[in-house]
Amino acid sequence: MMYLKVAIPRPLDRLFDYEYSEDDHGVISLGDWVAVPFGRSRLVGCVVEIKHDKPTLPEGVKLKAVTEKISSDFSLPSELVQICKFGAEYYQYPIGEAFFSAMPPSPEKELGTRKVKSKEIKVKEINLNDEQRLVVNTVEEKLALGSNPVFLLEGITGSGKTEVYIELAKKRLSEGKSVLILVPEIALTAQLRDRFENSLGNPVALWHSALAEGLRQVQWKKIKTGEIKVVIGARSAVFAPMKNLGLIVVDEEHDQTYKQEERFRYQARDIAVYRAHLQKIPIILGSATPSLESIQRVKEGRYVHLRLNRRFSGQMLPEIKLISLSEEMLVINEKVKTPFAEKTVQIMQETIDRGEQVIVFLNRRGFSQFILCQDCGWIKECPQCSITLTHYQRKNELRCHVCGYHQHVPSDCEQCHSHELRGMGFGTESLEEELQLMLPDAKILRLDRDQITSQKRLEETLDDFRSGKSNILIGTQMLVKGHDFAKVTCVVVVSSDMLLKWPDFRASERALQTLTQVSGRAGRAELPGQVLIQGFDLDHTVIKVLQGEQSHESFIEEELLMRKELNYPPFSRFVRFRFQGKNESVLRKKVESIIERVLGESENDRSRMMGPSEALLFRANHEYRFDFYYKAPTIDALMKLSKKLKSMAEFEEIELIVDVDPYTS
Ligand code: ADP
Ligand code: ZN
Ligand code: ZN
């Protein structure tokens, strides 16, 4: 008889014991899926430990037996077992549910042998330029020496990073190894697949959650057997069962869509780095604007820095035009609530008249309100957190949603003493209608997450725009990632303030990343491009970097200094504890008493703890949410506090959601 520890898909932080007879069910290995009785139900879980000694169970608990072993075709490779265990521990997520992320679709039954259409692949050869060649050689030299470091490839948009990935992938394939490529958006994968297939002469599988189950199952098996050797996918592809993996690429490594924001809150880039380390293979993190986390690791000598400094085409980066909303004439129209300068509208019209296209970029999240001086662009930040204070109109109050600091809305600007303070947060939903009023003849398309529900719709919208059926495309973050539109020569950023004042310690870093990406959409082909940035505060460092008036390096130094002073990442492990409940006053009391106790017991670490405070979205799905943040000096400290708070929350019977390395507020 054998004894198994099984990861069961239930919200519990532990494994469960079962006995197993190889005579009855066949040989068992780590990573096998088994059906087991659990309470009154039958569940499928993953075998995480195998023992020959009978475990000691609490009195009265009877050891149950596995009812069935599921076909080994679907077993997880051992490294994925290891990765899921690590993920569950680090992200403080129930282990059985973490395994769910790596589970093949419906392992209990074959969903049919869907034939994957094979199409003709035209192999295209290119020659790398000197910069690219140098990067590839550096990587290959390190590998030849037997070291497998993390490489950070920093290269401006269009500098040819993708060609570098392709070249390195070719080498691994020629050694019989497989390659995993992560990209931030599924919207990008189709375009990239063709490029990889045609350069590698090898079929490439796309991996994302929107694929039909049957197809996913067929692919999963082909990847596991090594029949498919190249996978391009969004964040969940980090759990692909690659055979003989030889390289991982994480493109746009700074992108926050790598972080899963619900249930299992993992960061796919960080899991990828762990995976590469575990499997002793190289990993390339690529970006035009790397995350400060990765840059800091370069500074500490833990990552190898590689650079591409020129655009491959020699094409200039687009011209950046600043449009001051406090100085320019604004469009006056009762129905237009979003501030638009007359000049902006005029340039858009001229672009359309030339037969070229315009992209209008809007920050995705519009629910945060803040107070801004219309004359000098000043905004109030939290004195403790360096984070924009959020405006609550009802109470006429400014609040820090991180530490809970609050004050009355001041009557005048602390910088220029103007009385022109105004609440911001635009009527973004209506932007399409407003633009139509300003540009009556324009054909306008809109692309955002709420509206684009399927890959098909997304591709249709993009194709429509590319074919020139419309003049203007309005979109959010998902639009600006890597799409090539030859006829787009003008990109409009509706409000830089909305990006820069987002209440988050990463606001500046993110604004620069986003604006760099947005700018990269203008003037990709022969036509020169321009980027119009509208805003009240155009004196911001980020804008100066974008214009080339301040160096990127000095911006990074400033940011790192601020982060270090305030103990933010990359100098600490940030974690958010979110307490949820239906009854506001009961929840508030319980949270306050829990936190009071925790603060009392953590003298040395108190300055690293913030809150409790009402979450930015205080009420969602009929639940109230209070947040408590911890800037942990070490992972151990993080785990310790996390376990403590979990047991306190359980005792008080309130829901607690732990988010390690959170991005959104
Ligand atoms: P990035 O990934 O850094 O944005 P890409 O790899 O997409 O840049 O390169 C930008 C453009 O330049 C693409 O159209 C690509 O095909 C082309 N390109 C890059 N390197 C080469 C090369 N060595 N030879 C020919 N074309 C190249
Ligand atoms: Zn002012
Ligand atoms: Zn604060």
CATH architecture assignment name of the largest domain: 3-Layer(aba) Sandwich
Largest sheet properties: 7 strands, parallel
Contiguous low-pLDDT stretches (5 residues minimum) are none
Supply the CATH class of the largest domain: Alpha Beta
Total helices: the number is 18
Helix content range of the residues, please? 25-40%
Q: How many separate domains?
A: 5
Beta-strand residue percentage: 15-25%
Descriptors:
single chain, 665 residues, alpha/beta, GIY-YIG endonuclease, Rossmann fold, 5 domains, seven-stranded parallel beta sheet, six-stranded mixed beta sheet, 18 helices, globular, binds adenosine-5'-diphosphate, binds zinc ion
Description:
It is a single chain. The longest helix has 18 residues, at about 585-600. The two termini are about 50 Å apart. It is built from 18 helices and 28 strands. It folds into five domains: about 1-100, 3-Layer(aba) Sandwich (GIY-YIG endonuclease), CATH 3.40.1440.60; about 130-310, 3-Layer(aba) Sandwich (Rossmann fold), CATH 3.40.50; about 320-365 and about 450-560, P-loop containing nucleotide triphosphate hydrolases (Rossmann fold); about 370-425, no CATH class; about 575-660, 2-Layer Sandwich (Alpha-Beta Plaits). The model has no long low-confidence stretch (mean pLDDT about 90). The strands form six sheets. Strands 9-10-8-11-12-7-13 form a seven-stranded parallel sheet, with helices on both faces. The chain has a six-stranded mixed sheet with strand order 5-2-1-4-3-6. Helix 2 packs across helix 8 and helix 14 runs parallel beside helix 15 (about 540-545). The protein has about 675 residues and is of the alpha/beta class. The structure holds adenosine-5'-diphosphate (ADP) and zinc ion (2 copies). Adenosine-5'-diphosphate binds near residues 132, 158, 161 and 312.
